[in-house]
Amino acid sequence: MSLFTVSDWQAPSEPVVSHTSHKKKRKRTQSTSEQSEMAAKLTSVQNALERLKAGDDLQRSEKRGKQEESRGSSATAELSKPLKKTATSYGKQTTVANNDTHVQKKRRKEPIQNTGSSISTPNPAVKGLTALQSSMKSSLEGARFRHINELLYKSTSENATELVKQDPTMIEDYHAGFRRQVKSWPVNPVDQYIIELSKLPKPLVVADLGCGDAALARALVPKGVCVLSYDLKGHKSYVIEADICRHIPLPGSESSNDEEGEGAVVDVVICALSLMSTNWLGCVREAWRILRPGGRLKIAEVTNGFQAREQGMWAPPTYSQFAKTIQDTSNTHFIKFDFRKIRPAKPVNWKELSRRGEVLQPYHVPSETSTDPEPTLACCFGSSASSTRPRQSQPLHKQEMPGSVTVVSHPLVGAKLSKLRKVETSPKEFREGVHQISMVLGIEASRDLETKTFEGKSPITTFQGTEIARRIGLTPILRAGLGMTEAMLTLFPEAHVYYLGLFREKVTLQPVEYYSKLPSSPTVDLVYLLDPLVATGGTAVAAINMLVDWGLAVENIRLLSVLASQEGIDHVRAEFPTLDIYVAAIDSELTGKGYLTPGLGDAGDRLNNTFGFH
To answer: What pLDDT was estimated at residue 97?
Structure first.
């Protein structure tokens, strides 16, 4: 019964639909709409996936897939709007969902799809990558480089050759990765060799073993230098394919009947970061074969690529085919060696030497058996005074091995030397700098001193100690050598000091002796000759001759110098090949008056504030 009555209105005879049933009816209608919407989305997604599979570039494909999916979602979302709008404003989008073939033709004309059509391009522009994609790409390339690098280091050269033949892109990927690696270094050793070789007299024949992309040849051939480049994979313009550890297609011999081999034509062999395979000593052997008598072998290797093993580090000198003239550790990333071809004392036992190739390891793989922090190649070259000395259990007998030049590298030494070069540096600061550098040189030059033991007592208990066994002498060359004496006396307070007076005649640049008070016979076992500057080398040679005439063997003399010229070093080495030289830096040129360039002026004048340098 109704509560009130309205005219012309009657209640229906059938029951009113309940709220629940009405709700269910609306839900069924909405479900149909959602199904239609989901079907459209699924169609759009499927189309996008098909287009992704057709692309070669994963990054570009994913990007376009997201764009297509977004566009499809927008189109299907409009289906829930009134039918009139769908038919008019969004008719094209509806067509997209229902006719994919037609829309693909249309979209080729749309500007945004021009990038999508280039998905099949093999080499898309890197600038199109996001920061994350670029980072992932760089990581993958770095991993590829490290993998190839370890393969080459742990394989024989013969196996490496086969690997390259099976996968020609491997060596290209390695060279590309290596170029990226070198960009982070302060300097590329190849660039240094280009400068160095361009200054040598011509004609000059250079063999670049393991040349990579032949940067040496590309720079030097236009300058008139003959550069022969060899690597695992050849190149039609510059690179000759060869296994440099087994045979280099150049004339030369290593017959025991020949003093230094016959038929060799090469003046300089370069191995710039290329001694990689387990049989890398074969490359050294080939270098000796193709070099002229007295020819130079120049090696640059990554510093931590060497593993100074306890066994096989120091080969007998009779195995030597090269005399080391320079070892340069001034760079933090690589170490450089300069060797001169010499005649072997007897036929070389290459089978024995080949067992020592483990000294060189992949530079990114640390070795648990490494015992020394510095590298050495003494296992196959006749050298003794590298920056790393043998342990006390393996005493070094200097009289049995040729000498060497050690450039002492340290950030503090470099900073002190740079201050010495400045013209505004005061005499007091100059004396302090020479003192500090001399201290470092003295420590470095004393690494292999023999010691003897003694019994002592500490405040707690007894102990077994060591002390220097040899009698030490200091010979400063007056007057500049006085600046180094106090530092050396700090290290060796009991040392005997013998002064030698020499000056360089200003016109002829020849040394003139004016003071010597050496005893009648040597009273020391080892002498450190102190001369802050070695310019022409004449004064140092004269002083060494005076010590030799006194009765000292050259192997018992060590020359310490703050700064030297390459010409001066060569002069001293030519006169005394077995002499050990320790220097903080080497300048490449001399002025007409015999001063080093850039140099630091006249050391004696600057030490004594007599203002004679210009």
So the answer is: 42
Lowest-pLDDT range of 124-128, 292-296, 316-320, 511-515: 316-320
265 and 151 housed in the same domain: no
Contact 417, 562 (CB under 8 A): yes
As for how many domains the chain has, the answer is 4
- Structure token digits, residue 103: 């829309």
The helix/strand/coil state of 340 is strand
Coil/strand/helix, residue 413: helix
Q: Which residues pair with 338 in a beta bridge?
A: 298, 326
Mind listing the pLDDT tens digit for each residue in 245-294? Answer: 989 999 998 765 556 668 899 999 999 988 888 888 889 889 989 999 88
* Torsion, CA 198, CA 200, CA 206, CA 208, rounded to 10: -50
226: closest CA among 263, 254, 268? 268
Distance of CA 335 to the CA centre of its chain: 8
Is residue 300 within 8 A of residue 334, CB to CB? The reply is yes
On whether the CB atoms of residues 321 and 342 are closer than 8 A, the answer is: yes
- Sequence-distant (≥ 6) Cβ neighbours of residue 115 within 8 angstroms: 60, 64, 128
Cβ count within 10 A of residue 57: 18
Q: Is 252 helix (H, G, I), strand (E, B) or coil?
A: coil
Q: What is the pLDDT of residues 17-45, one digit of tens each?
A: 555 444 444 544 445 565 666 666 666 65
Closest CA to 447 of 402, 386, 404: 386
DSSP for 183-222, written as a single string? HTSS--HHHHHHHHHHTS-SS-EEEEET-TTTHHHHHHGG
Residue 586 falls within a domain, yes or no? yes
CA nearest 594: which of 541, 538, 540, 545?
A: 538
Query: Do 439 and 554 share a domain, yes or no?
Result: yes
Give the Cα separation of 19 and 21 in Å (integer).
6
The Cα 481–Cα 532 span in angstroms is 6
- Evaluate if residue 15 carries a pLDDT over 60: no
Judged on CB neighbours under 10 Å (0-12, 13-18, 19+), 194 is middle
Mark whether 167 and 118 lie in a shared domain: no
| φ/ψ of residue 602, rounded to 5 | -85, 110
Share of the chain above pLDDT 90, in %: 25
150-159, 171-180, 520-529: which is most confident: 520-529
On whether both 156 and 249 belong to a single domain, the answer is no
Please tell me whether residue 327 adopts helix, strand or coil conformation.
Answer: strand
Provide DSSP, 366-403.
Answer: --TT---SS---TTTSB----SSPPPTTS---GGGS--
- In terms of pTM, does the model score above 0.70? no
Work out the number of other CB atoms within 10 angstroms of the CB of residue 136.
13
Reported as type and span, the H/E element at residue 262 is none
Backbone angles phi, psi at 529, to 5 degrees: -90, 120
Does some domain include residue 9?
no
Residues whose CB is less than 8 angstroms from the CB of residue 425 and which lie 6 or more positions away in sequence, other chains included: 419, 433, 606
